[in-house]
Design a protein that fits this description.
single chain, about 325 residues, alpha/beta, 13 helices, binds nicotinamide-adenine-dinucleotide
Protein backbone atom coordinates (compact mmCIF):
# COMPACT_ATOMS: atom_id res chain seq x y z
CA UNK A 1 0.00 0.00 0.00
CA UNK A 2 1.20 3.48 -0.85
CA UNK A 3 1.63 6.44 1.46
CA UNK A 4 2.10 9.92 -0.02
CA UNK A 5 3.77 12.24 2.53
CA UNK A 6 3.12 15.41 0.55
CA UNK A 7 4.57 17.84 3.12
CA UNK A 8 7.33 15.42 4.21
CA UNK A 9 7.67 13.02 7.16
CA UNK A 10 10.63 12.26 9.45
CA UNK A 11 12.85 9.29 8.57
CA UNK A 12 11.67 7.53 11.76
CA UNK A 13 8.15 7.37 10.29
CA UNK A 14 9.35 6.24 6.85
CA UNK A 15 11.34 3.40 8.42
CA UNK A 16 8.43 2.16 10.55
CA UNK A 17 6.06 2.23 7.59
CA UNK A 18 8.48 0.50 5.22
CA UNK A 19 9.20 -2.17 7.84
CA UNK A 20 5.46 -2.94 7.79
CA UNK A 21 5.34 -3.24 4.02
CA UNK A 22 4.12 0.25 3.02
CA UNK A 23 5.85 2.17 0.27
CA UNK A 24 6.38 5.83 1.16
CA UNK A 25 6.39 8.48 -1.55
CA UNK A 26 8.10 11.71 -0.45
CA UNK A 27 7.21 13.73 -3.55
CA UNK A 28 5.67 17.17 -3.05
CA UNK A 29 2.83 17.36 -5.54
CA UNK A 30 1.33 20.77 -6.40
CA UNK A 31 -2.16 21.26 -5.03
CA UNK A 32 -3.82 21.35 -8.47
CA UNK A 33 -2.15 18.09 -9.55
CA UNK A 34 -2.88 16.11 -6.40
CA UNK A 35 -6.13 14.44 -7.48
CA UNK A 36 -4.55 13.03 -10.66
CA UNK A 37 -1.37 11.95 -8.86
CA UNK A 38 -3.28 10.16 -6.08
CA UNK A 39 -5.46 8.33 -8.63
CA UNK A 40 -2.58 7.44 -10.98
CA UNK A 41 -0.54 6.04 -8.07
CA UNK A 42 -3.42 4.51 -6.06
CA UNK A 43 -2.38 6.31 -2.89
CA UNK A 44 -4.05 4.80 0.21
CA UNK A 45 -2.71 7.23 2.81
CA UNK A 46 -2.30 10.96 2.28
CA UNK A 47 -0.10 12.60 4.92
CA UNK A 48 0.15 16.37 5.19
CA UNK A 49 1.39 19.04 7.60
CA UNK A 50 -0.07 22.52 7.23
CA UNK A 51 0.77 23.29 3.58
CA UNK A 52 -1.39 20.82 1.61
CA UNK A 53 -5.14 21.44 1.63
CA UNK A 54 -7.32 18.35 1.79
CA UNK A 55 -10.74 19.56 0.72
CA UNK A 56 -13.91 18.11 -0.83
CA UNK A 57 -12.32 17.91 -4.32
CA UNK A 58 -9.70 15.39 -3.13
CA UNK A 59 -12.08 13.54 -0.80
CA UNK A 60 -14.74 13.15 -3.54
CA UNK A 61 -12.42 12.30 -6.44
CA UNK A 62 -9.82 9.98 -4.88
CA UNK A 63 -11.53 6.70 -3.95
CA UNK A 64 -8.23 4.97 -3.12
CA UNK A 65 -7.69 7.13 0.00
CA UNK A 66 -8.35 5.30 3.25
CA UNK A 67 -6.50 7.57 5.66
CA UNK A 68 -5.76 11.29 5.76
CA UNK A 69 -3.07 12.07 8.33
CA UNK A 70 -1.92 15.43 9.72
CA UNK A 71 1.51 15.61 11.34
CA UNK A 72 0.79 17.99 14.24
CA UNK A 73 -2.27 19.42 15.96
CA UNK A 74 -4.42 21.84 13.93
CA UNK A 75 -6.59 20.30 11.19
CA UNK A 76 -7.76 23.59 9.64
CA UNK A 77 -6.38 22.47 6.26
CA UNK A 78 -8.47 19.26 6.19
CA UNK A 79 -12.26 18.93 5.79
CA UNK A 80 -12.29 16.48 8.68
CA UNK A 81 -16.04 15.97 9.15
CA UNK A 82 -16.64 15.58 5.43
CA UNK A 83 -13.82 13.04 5.09
CA UNK A 84 -15.17 11.04 8.05
CA UNK A 85 -18.67 11.11 6.58
CA UNK A 86 -17.20 9.42 3.49
CA UNK A 87 -15.66 6.65 5.64
CA UNK A 88 -12.09 7.99 5.52
CA UNK A 89 -10.01 7.77 8.71
CA UNK A 90 -8.55 11.13 9.75
CA UNK A 91 -5.62 10.98 12.14
CA UNK A 92 -3.22 13.49 13.74
CA UNK A 93 -0.55 13.61 16.43
CA UNK A 94 -1.78 16.11 19.01
CA UNK A 95 0.73 15.37 21.78
CA UNK A 96 3.93 14.95 19.79
CA UNK A 97 5.07 18.56 19.79
CA UNK A 98 3.90 19.77 23.22
CA UNK A 99 7.33 19.71 24.84
CA UNK A 100 8.97 21.45 21.87
CA UNK A 101 6.47 24.30 22.04
CA UNK A 102 6.94 24.53 25.83
CA UNK A 103 10.72 24.80 25.41
CA UNK A 104 10.31 27.54 22.81
CA UNK A 105 8.18 29.48 25.32
CA UNK A 106 11.08 29.29 27.78
CA UNK A 107 13.60 30.24 25.11
CA UNK A 108 11.57 33.44 24.69
CA UNK A 109 11.07 33.96 28.44
CA UNK A 110 14.75 33.56 29.32
CA UNK A 111 15.71 35.67 26.32
CA UNK A 112 13.36 38.52 27.23
CA UNK A 113 14.28 38.44 30.92
CA UNK A 114 17.91 39.21 29.94
CA UNK A 115 17.22 41.32 26.81
CA UNK A 116 18.79 38.72 24.48
CA UNK A 117 16.37 39.63 21.66
CA UNK A 118 17.54 43.25 21.78
CA UNK A 119 21.17 42.47 22.51
CA UNK A 120 21.38 40.11 19.54
CA UNK A 121 20.06 42.89 17.31
CA UNK A 122 22.38 45.59 18.67
CA UNK A 123 25.68 43.83 19.41
CA UNK A 124 26.50 43.31 15.70
CA UNK A 125 25.70 46.99 15.01
CA UNK A 126 27.25 48.75 18.04
CA UNK A 127 28.99 46.12 20.16
CA UNK A 128 32.48 47.39 19.30
CA UNK A 129 31.91 51.13 19.71
CA UNK A 130 29.19 51.26 22.37
CA UNK A 131 29.91 48.17 24.48
CA UNK A 132 29.55 50.02 27.79
CA UNK A 133 26.29 51.71 26.75
CA UNK A 134 24.81 48.38 25.71
CA UNK A 135 26.01 46.78 28.96
CA UNK A 136 24.13 49.50 30.87
CA UNK A 137 21.01 49.10 28.71
CA UNK A 138 20.79 45.41 29.50
CA UNK A 139 21.87 45.62 33.14
CA UNK A 140 18.42 45.28 34.74
CA UNK A 141 17.74 41.65 33.95
CA UNK A 142 15.37 39.51 35.92
CA UNK A 143 15.41 35.88 37.11
CA UNK A 144 12.55 33.50 36.36
CA UNK A 145 13.03 31.46 39.53
CA UNK A 146 10.59 32.54 42.23
CA UNK A 147 8.35 34.41 39.79
CA UNK A 148 4.79 33.49 38.79
CA UNK A 149 4.00 32.01 35.40
CA UNK A 150 0.38 32.38 34.32
CA UNK A 151 -0.97 29.95 31.75
CA UNK A 152 -4.07 30.68 29.73
CA UNK A 153 -5.18 27.35 28.32
CA UNK A 154 -4.10 24.38 30.43
CA UNK A 155 -4.21 21.50 27.94
CA UNK A 156 -1.25 19.53 26.60
CA UNK A 157 1.09 22.43 25.86
CA UNK A 158 -0.01 24.52 28.83
CA UNK A 159 0.76 21.60 31.13
CA UNK A 160 4.10 20.85 29.42
CA UNK A 161 5.02 24.53 29.94
CA UNK A 162 3.94 24.32 33.59
CA UNK A 163 6.27 21.37 34.17
CA UNK A 164 9.30 23.30 32.95
CA UNK A 165 8.28 26.26 35.14
CA UNK A 166 7.89 24.06 38.22
CA UNK A 167 11.28 22.50 37.56
CA UNK A 168 12.79 26.00 37.54
CA UNK A 169 11.25 26.96 40.86
CA UNK A 170 8.48 29.16 39.49
CA UNK A 171 4.96 29.38 40.88
CA UNK A 172 2.37 28.30 38.30
CA UNK A 173 -1.19 29.59 38.01
CA UNK A 174 -3.57 28.64 35.22
CA UNK A 175 -6.91 29.56 33.69
CA UNK A 176 -8.91 27.09 31.58
CA UNK A 177 -12.69 27.34 31.44
CA UNK A 178 -13.00 23.64 30.62
CA UNK A 179 -10.66 22.25 33.28
CA UNK A 180 -10.87 22.57 37.09
CA UNK A 181 -7.55 20.95 37.98
CA UNK A 182 -4.68 18.90 36.61
CA UNK A 183 -2.10 16.65 38.21
CA UNK A 184 1.31 17.08 36.64
CA UNK A 185 4.07 14.51 36.90
CA UNK A 186 7.59 15.90 36.78
CA UNK A 187 9.99 13.15 35.81
CA UNK A 188 13.70 13.45 36.44
CA UNK A 189 16.63 11.77 34.71
CA UNK A 190 17.04 9.20 37.49
CA UNK A 191 13.35 8.18 37.31
CA UNK A 192 12.38 10.08 40.42
CA UNK A 193 9.01 11.73 39.97
CA UNK A 194 7.19 14.51 41.78
CA UNK A 195 3.47 15.14 41.43
CA UNK A 196 1.90 18.62 41.49
CA UNK A 197 -1.79 19.32 41.68
CA UNK A 198 -2.79 22.63 40.13
CA UNK A 199 -6.32 24.02 40.46
CA UNK A 200 -7.27 26.47 37.75
CA UNK A 201 -8.34 30.00 38.78
CA UNK A 202 -10.13 32.81 36.93
CA UNK A 203 -8.60 34.58 33.94
CA UNK A 204 -8.60 37.85 35.88
CA UNK A 205 -6.70 36.28 38.78
CA UNK A 206 -4.11 34.84 36.38
CA UNK A 207 -3.67 38.22 34.67
CA UNK A 208 -3.33 40.03 38.01
CA UNK A 209 -0.90 37.59 39.65
CA UNK A 210 1.49 36.67 36.84
CA UNK A 211 4.93 38.07 36.11
CA UNK A 212 5.03 36.04 32.91
CA UNK A 213 1.99 34.92 30.89
CA UNK A 214 1.86 32.28 28.17
CA UNK A 215 -1.12 31.42 26.00
CA UNK A 216 -1.97 27.85 24.99
CA UNK A 217 -5.52 27.98 23.69
CA UNK A 218 -6.97 26.77 20.38
CA UNK A 219 -7.90 29.37 17.76
CA UNK A 220 -10.86 31.47 18.90
CA UNK A 221 -13.50 33.71 17.38
CA UNK A 222 -12.42 36.63 19.53
CA UNK A 223 -9.25 37.88 21.19
CA UNK A 224 -8.32 36.20 24.47
CA UNK A 225 -5.96 39.08 25.27
CA UNK A 226 -6.92 42.60 24.23
CA UNK A 227 -6.88 46.12 25.76
CA UNK A 228 -8.94 45.17 28.80
CA UNK A 229 -6.71 42.16 29.64
CA UNK A 230 -3.49 44.16 29.17
CA UNK A 231 -4.85 46.73 31.64
CA UNK A 232 -5.42 44.04 34.26
CA UNK A 233 -1.88 42.62 33.89
CA UNK A 234 0.84 43.47 36.36
CA UNK A 235 2.97 46.46 35.48
CA UNK A 236 6.16 45.10 33.90
CA UNK A 237 4.74 41.68 32.99
CA UNK A 238 5.88 39.67 29.95
CA UNK A 239 3.61 37.73 27.60
CA UNK A 240 4.21 34.95 25.05
CA UNK A 241 1.88 33.84 22.27
CA UNK A 242 2.95 30.52 20.77
CA UNK A 243 -0.67 29.38 20.34
CA UNK A 244 -2.42 30.90 17.34
CA UNK A 245 -2.42 34.22 15.55
CA UNK A 246 -5.58 36.12 16.49
CA UNK A 247 -5.55 35.04 20.12
CA UNK A 248 -3.69 38.22 21.12
CA UNK A 249 -4.86 41.60 19.78
CA UNK A 250 -1.61 42.80 18.17
CA UNK A 251 -2.64 46.48 18.12
CA UNK A 252 -3.46 46.39 21.83
CA UNK A 253 -0.15 44.57 22.42
CA UNK A 254 1.87 47.30 20.72
CA UNK A 255 0.03 49.95 22.76
CA UNK A 256 0.73 48.07 26.02
CA UNK A 257 4.43 47.88 25.08
CA UNK A 258 4.67 51.51 23.98
CA UNK A 259 3.07 52.74 27.21
CA UNK A 260 5.58 50.56 29.12
CA UNK A 261 2.70 48.88 30.92
CA UNK A 262 4.21 45.52 30.00
CA UNK A 263 7.97 44.95 29.69
CA UNK A 264 8.10 42.62 26.74
CA UNK A 265 6.28 40.16 24.55
CA UNK A 266 7.15 37.20 22.38
CA UNK A 267 5.29 36.06 19.30
CA UNK A 268 5.72 32.77 17.45
CA UNK A 269 2.35 33.15 15.71
CA UNK A 270 0.78 36.17 14.04
CA UNK A 271 -2.61 37.48 13.04
CA UNK A 272 -1.35 37.94 9.51
CA UNK A 273 0.74 34.85 8.73
CA UNK A 274 2.89 34.50 6.69
CA UNK A 275 3.20 38.30 6.39
CA UNK A 276 3.28 39.69 9.93
CA UNK A 277 2.77 43.44 10.34
CA UNK A 278 6.01 45.38 9.85
CA UNK A 279 5.13 47.36 13.01
CA UNK A 280 5.61 44.11 14.94
CA UNK A 281 8.73 42.97 13.10
CA UNK A 282 10.50 46.29 13.79
CA UNK A 283 9.46 46.59 17.45
CA UNK A 284 12.56 46.18 19.67
CA UNK A 285 10.50 45.00 22.66
CA UNK A 286 9.27 41.95 20.80
CA UNK A 287 11.03 38.60 20.76
CA UNK A 288 10.05 37.01 17.46
CA UNK A 289 10.09 33.58 15.82
CA UNK A 290 8.41 32.45 12.57
CA UNK A 291 5.96 29.80 13.89
CA UNK A 292 8.63 27.27 14.90
CA UNK A 293 7.03 25.93 18.09
CA UNK A 294 6.95 22.33 16.86
CA UNK A 295 10.07 22.58 14.73
CA UNK A 296 12.52 20.30 16.53
CA UNK A 297 14.03 17.06 15.32
CA UNK A 298 12.58 15.28 18.35
CA UNK A 299 9.03 16.49 17.71
CA UNK A 300 9.25 15.61 14.01
CA UNK A 301 10.52 12.13 14.93
CA UNK A 302 7.66 11.61 17.37
CA UNK A 303 5.16 12.88 14.77
CA UNK A 304 6.56 10.44 12.16
CA UNK A 305 6.50 7.46 14.50
CA UNK A 306 3.04 8.22 15.89
CA UNK A 307 1.57 8.58 12.38
CA UNK A 308 3.22 5.32 11.31
CA UNK A 309 1.83 3.44 14.35
CA UNK A 310 -1.69 4.74 13.75
CA UNK A 311 -1.55 3.85 10.03
CA UNK A 312 -0.27 0.35 10.79
CA UNK A 313 -2.99 -0.16 13.45
CA UNK A 314 -5.74 0.88 11.02
CA UNK A 315 -4.60 -0.85 7.84
CA UNK A 316 -2.72 -3.95 8.97
N1 LIG B 1 3.63 27.48 17.87
C1 LIG B 1 3.48 26.30 17.32
O1 LIG B 1 4.24 25.93 16.42
C2 LIG B 1 2.41 25.38 17.78
C3 LIG B 1 2.60 23.99 17.72
C4 LIG B 1 1.62 23.15 18.19
C5 LIG B 1 0.42 23.69 18.69
N2 LIG B 1 0.24 25.04 18.72
C6 LIG B 1 -1.01 25.62 19.25
O2 LIG B 1 -1.02 25.52 20.66
C7 LIG B 1 -2.37 25.60 21.11
C8 LIG B 1 -2.61 24.63 22.27
O3 LIG B 1 -2.36 23.29 21.84
P1 LIG B 1 -2.61 22.07 22.85
O4 LIG B 1 -2.05 20.87 22.19
O5 LIG B 1 -2.16 22.42 24.22
O6 LIG B 1 -4.20 22.02 22.82
P2 LIG B 1 -5.16 21.35 23.92
O7 LIG B 1 -6.44 21.13 23.25
O8 LIG B 1 -4.49 20.19 24.60
O9 LIG B 1 -5.30 22.51 25.03
C9 LIG B 1 -5.98 23.71 24.79
C10 LIG B 1 -6.66 24.11 26.10
O10 LIG B 1 -7.20 25.42 25.96
C11 LIG B 1 -8.41 25.45 26.69
N3 LIG B 1 -9.19 26.59 26.22
C12 LIG B 1 -10.04 26.67 25.16
N4 LIG B 1 -10.52 27.94 25.06
C13 LIG B 1 -9.95 28.65 26.06
C14 LIG B 1 -10.03 30.01 26.47
N5 LIG B 1 -10.78 30.89 25.81
N6 LIG B 1 -9.31 30.41 27.54
C15 LIG B 1 -8.52 29.54 28.21
N7 LIG B 1 -8.41 28.23 27.87
C16 LIG B 1 -9.11 27.80 26.81
C17 LIG B 1 -9.04 24.09 26.44
O11 LIG B 1 -9.97 23.77 27.45
C18 LIG B 1 -7.82 23.18 26.47
O12 LIG B 1 -7.61 22.64 27.77
C19 LIG B 1 -3.23 25.35 19.86
O13 LIG B 1 -3.75 26.60 19.42
C20 LIG B 1 -2.26 24.87 18.83
O14 LIG B 1 -2.65 25.23 17.52
C21 LIG B 1 1.21 25.89 18.30
Amino acid sequence: MKVLANDGIATSGVMELEASGFSVDLSTIAQDQLVDYINDNEIAVLLVRSATQVRKDIIDNCPSIKIIGRGGVGMDNIDVDYAKSKGINVINTPAASSHSVAELVFAHLFGMARFLHESNRNMPLEGDLKFKNLKKSYAKGTELRGKTLGLIGFGRIGQATAKIALGLGMKVVAFDPYLDAATLELEFFDHQAVFFNINTITKEEVLKESDFISLHVPSQNEYVISTNEFEIMKEGAFIVNAARGGVVDELALVKALESNHISGAALDVFENEPKPEIQLLMNPSLSLTPHIGAATGEAQDRIGTELAHQIIDILK
